[in-house]
Structures are given as structure tokens and as C-alpha cells.
Amino acid sequence: MNDIRNQVAVIDGLRAPTIVLQNARYLHSVFRDWRHGNIWIAEDRIVYVGDELPQNTKNTEIIDMTGKTIVPGYIEPHVHPHQLYNPVSFARYAMKTGTSTMLCDNLAMFLALQNKKAFSMMDRWKTLPTQLYWWVRFDSQTQLEHEHDVFSMENVLEWIERPDVLMGGEVTGWPRLMAGDDEMLYWIQAAKLKGKKIEAHLPGASEKTLAKMRLFGANGDHEAITVDDVEKRLNQGYAVTLRYSSIRPDLPNILKDIVEKGWNIFHHLMMTTDGSTPMFHEDGVMDKCIRAALAAGVTPIDAYNMASYNVAKYYGVSNLHGMIATGRFATLNVLTDEFTPVPEAVMAKGQWMVRDGEEVFDWPEERFEEFAPLALDFELHESDFQFSIPFGIQLVNDVITKPYSVNLHLNKQAVVQNEDECYLMLIDKFGKWHVNTFLKGFAKNVQGFASTYSTTGDVILIGKSIEAMMQAFNEVKKLGGGIVLIENEQVIASIPLTVGGLMSDLPMEQLIEQEKELIAKLRERGFDKGDAIYSLLFLQSTHLPYIRITPKGLYDVMKKNILLPAMMRE
User: Fold this and answer.
1) How far is C-alpha 190 from the geometric centre of its chain's CA atoms?
2) CA distances from 332 to 27, 172, 259 (A)
3) What is the reported pLDDT for 411?
4) Which residue of 108, 442, 445, 471 has the fewest C-beta atoms within 10 A of its own C-beta?
5) 158 and 180 fall within a common domain
6) Torsional sign, CA 462, 468, 474, 475
7) Backbone angles phi, psi at 27, to 5 degrees
8) Is 287:97 a contact under the CB 8 Å cutoff?
9) What is the DSSP letter of 373?
10) Are residues 129 and 230 part of one domain?
11) Which is one Pfam family of this protein (predicted)?
12) In a shared domain, residues 106 and 246
């Protein structure tokens, strides 16, 4: 209440604003035009936009913006903030190019932490200049042994109650909903009663499926691959978010097709990088989407609104974000012109983050104390490496798999070199069980590879050599989690993931270099798919066809049955 009184006092001249941006050319998101005026800022809020200048300017920073263009801070509406990076490292990196508000997936925290610890971390992050909002998941994306204990009524409803949770979903488990899962339907309705949007996950869905999911409560979907998919979703009343990601870079072509068709629908569209892996972000985050939109022929105003105002309005936070107007957070990007979305200067909540292209804000150190260090307190033995199953998993592309018949000469030490097949193991992070099969299409000459980066946080082992796979396991054990590639008893590439075995604590810039090295080494050894990190992540993901390795065992997604159960370890 005192903040409001102080803000009004600035208008009355009783107090001075902290910053005035004078002679500003700025985007008015509602009028959809470029306006000229003065922007008064008091602490973290805009308190006036117009022709007037304040009466009281004692200690006010007054900056002449003549020749510059100002737009609202960019909003990323669909972030998976655990793709090797962590929420804070990604937020800091994204801020440098103007993305200052993010709507984040809670799955990694939900599976790894009790709600009390997750909420403590989220509350601490409210002091950051980046505004972090959250989703609440309704399903795990895989086959967990005790999913109902993790996704309990109590746990999910506690997330729904939080005001910083703006979205339910993404609903990857929608076939369960269709099949009569009333618990999931209850959660969707509970979230909607609290004003949350429901995000579907409907790749390749028919019109009838889209219609049914809309009736079940879905508000939006981000799985359009073509302009026809966009039309189908808009016809059923969905909000559509277009992807420009490391595995689905569909945005440019879809926007070109929309422009060619002359559809006036940009007010109903949003954009996302959809949890891309670090290397994809080397040239930006939402600024990268805006560049792609401009190159596709989208007008600058529509391009910027898709990355700011449209998101804020859809999620019900346009009173705080997405426009340059009174009462909103003073979160702004200063541009050379509207055709150059990488800002010269970035302001978030009234604080300068970037000036003249250089970071000027001193970010607090984040220790992630809520995440216990990953302790793999067990040893692997030769008896764990029994591979007798007559079929395995074949990677069709980055993320789609199919079963295949195994026809290899096997021995205790290696699969035949230069064949496109490897051993594949999923090992419980507590050492209780394992699943053994074969993987075709990952790489031709990988001796030993280990990763604690997975959907469930369990350990994935891949390789030609059992001895090298065991060494790779021991190396990630030493690191306290990570990804390791072994050859001739040497570590030739690694990414330490010291935050719960899932995320790096390094700045994005360093993490990008580590990922580049790993991917280069994998490509030298025959990896020819698009995104190896997503290939690892989706080996367990049962929302994609056709066969997955899960904590319950080898799982047939289409038939919904276990082909090979997990084996308990001795």
C-alpha cells in the first residue's frame, strides 16, 4: 500500500521518479503503433507515460532517448528451465538479449524435490530481476513405479494454489484423460477455477481430438508443425504458440505461410524456443524468434507483440507485463530500431541489466541447496551387464523410436565395432533395478557413454564396450552427476551436472562450449541426428512413439504394455 501512495506522490510532484526516459519512441501494444513521449519510472514501476515531465526531479536519472526505440521486455511463455542449464543461469543469459519474463516447467523440481523445498527456492527467486512464473504438471511423461504417490492429489493441488503458477500442463498424458482419468480432469478443472490456462501437447492431432481436448479444458497448444495445424487449432478456439527450437524449428516456415495467406491472426499467436538445448541459444532467446518473424515478413509491431503483449494478455498478467503503460513493471528493451531486436540496453523492474551492450547488474550467486548432491552409492558388476533380449530400440530421428530385431554376435566385452548398434542400460539412481536392451541409430563408435541427465534422473549407459560403460558410470559418479564420453580408458568429453545430477551450475556461455565439445565428439563417432541431448531425454518419454526405456521396463507406447520388465539388482 505504501508503494502505491509513493507512486501517486510522484505524479503529484511530492516525490521524484528514479528514472525518466525522455523523448522516447515506444511501442504502444494496444494501439499497435509507435508513440513519442516521456516514461517516468519509480523504483520497479512505470508511473506515467505521456507528454509531461515530472515537477520533481531531485536525484532522478534523466536519459534522452532521442533516436532510440523502446519495446516491452520479451516474455518466453514455454520454458523447460532444466535442459542442462538451470532456471537462474538461463534467466541471466536470456536477460542479456532482452528476455526478462519466463513461464517455466516445474517437472524437474516436482520429481526431485518435496513441494516445501521447491516452493522455498521459487520464493527466493522472486527477488531476481527476471520474473519467473510456473506451470504445474499433471503427469510424468514416463512410466514411474509409484507415479500416483508423486502426482498425488495433495502435491498437485498445492502447486495449483500458488499465484505464480499460471498454467496447467503441458498435458502430455492426454490419452489417459481421453480414456477416463477423472483425477486428471479434476486437476484441469481445479486449475481453471484458479484462473490458470491449460496447455495441451497434441502433435499430429486430428480435428476431433483437438475438439475433445478443448472440451476437456485445454486453452492452448504449441505443437503446430504446419500452417494447416495452426488453422485446425484456431478453428477449435485454441491459442497457438509457435516453436523455434533445437528439435522443432517450425516458426519461420509457418509464419511465411501465414503472411502469404494474408491471415490477420498475429494477435492470437505467441512464440517459444520450447526448452532448447544450450547451443541453440548461442544467438539469443526470444530476440531470436523476433528476428525469424521479421525475416518471414511479419510486421515489427506484430513480431514484438507475439513476444510480449500477446503472452501477457493470454496469461492474465498484462497489468504487470507486456506493455509500456502506467502500473506495469519497468521492464523495457532499448533498441537501435524496430528491425534490430537485440537490445542496446535492458531494464528489468526498474534496474538496468545491460547498458551499451554490456551486462551491468551484479547477479546474486545461487547455490541450489534444496537439491541434494547426486550420490550413486553403489557399484556396477559384470552380472549387471546381461544382454539377451532379441529386440531393441531404434532411433528414427532425434526423438522418435521404433523396435527392431537384434541380430548381433555378442560376447561379454563388446558389440561388433562399426555396426550402428550399442548396448543400452537404464539404472536406478539408488541402485535397486536396471533395464538392459540395445540401441540402434545413436552412434557407430561410442565405447562408453553415461548420463544422469534423463527424464527421471536415473542413469543411462550406452556403448560398445561393457568395460568402457562401467568406466563412464564411475566417472559420472565422481562428478556427482553429468554426461561423460569414454574412449580407450580416457574421458574425451564431459558435462558436469552438479545440481541434482540434472543441471549445471555454470554460466550458459561455459555450458554452451561444453555441449559443443560433446556433440562434436559424438558426431565424430557417428551420431547423425539433430540433437543428442534431446535424444537422451526422450529415451524415457512415453508421450512419443513407439518404444521407450522406463523405470518399469521396456515400454510399448502404442499398445501400453511392458515388453521387458525392469530387473531387480542383486
Assistant:
1) 24
2) 10, 34, 28
3) 53
4) 445
5) yes
6) negative
7) -80, 125
8) yes
9) P
10) yes
11) Amidohydro_1
12) yes
How many whole angstroms separate alpha carbon 188 and alpha carbon 197? 9
**Domain boundary residue, one of 289, 320, 351:** 320
Q: Where are the beta strands (DSSP E) in 84-214?
A: 99-104, 131-136, 165-171, 197-200
Residue 218's contacts (CB-CB under 8 Å, 6 or more residues apart) are 169, 171, 198, 199, 200, 202, 238
Domain membership flag for residue 109? yes
Same domain, 63 and 135: no
Q: Is the pLDDT of residue 408 over 90?
A: no
DSSP for 388-440, please give it. --SEEEEESSSS-EEEEE------SSBPPTTSSEEEEEEE-TTSSEEEEEEEE
pLDDT band at 417 (very low <50, low <70, confident <90, very high): low
First to last CA, the chain: 63
Give residues with Cβ within 8 angstroms of 547, minimum separation 6: 393, 401, 402, 403, 554, 555, 556, 557, 563
Whole-angstrom Cα distance, residue 364 to residue 396? 43
Cα 482 to Cα 87, 125, 266, 517: the distances in Å are: 17, 25, 41, 14
304 domain-assigned: yes
Q: Pick from 273, 296, 320: which residue ends a domain?
A: 320
For residues 98 and 54, state if they share a domain: no
pTM check: above 0.85: yes
Identity of the residue numbered 405: S
Q: Are residues 11 and 98 in the same domain?
A: no
Same domain, residue pair 307 and 399: no
Calpha distance 43→145 (Å, rounded): 50
- Answer yes or no: is 347 within a domain: no
Asked whether the predicted pLDDT for residue 227 surpasses 90, the reply is yes
Q: Are 202 and 174 in contact (CB under 8 A)?
A: yes
Question: In the prediction, which pLDDT does 151 show?
Answer: 95
Res 418: pLDDT: 60
The reported pLDDT for the residue numbered 390 is 86
**Distance of alpha carbon 467 from alpha carbon 260, whole angstroms:** 57
pLDDT at residue 414, as a whole number: 67
Grid cell at residue 171 = 498435458
Mean pLDDT calculated for residue range 261-278: 97
Q: Let me know whether 210 and 245 are in one domain.
A: yes
CATH of the domain at 17: 2.30.40.10
CATH of the domain at 159: 3.20.20.140
- CA 4, CA 2: separation in Å to the nearest integer? 5
Q: What is the pLDDT of residue 92?
A: 98
Q: Number of folded domains in the chain?
A: 3
Cα(447)–Cα(435) distance, integer angstroms: 19
Q: In angstroms, rounded to a whole number, what is the distance separating the alpha carbons of residues 79 and 81?
A: 6
Assigned domain for 549 exists: yes
Q: In terms of Cα–Cα distance, which of 288, 368, 311, 343 is closest to 85?
A: 368
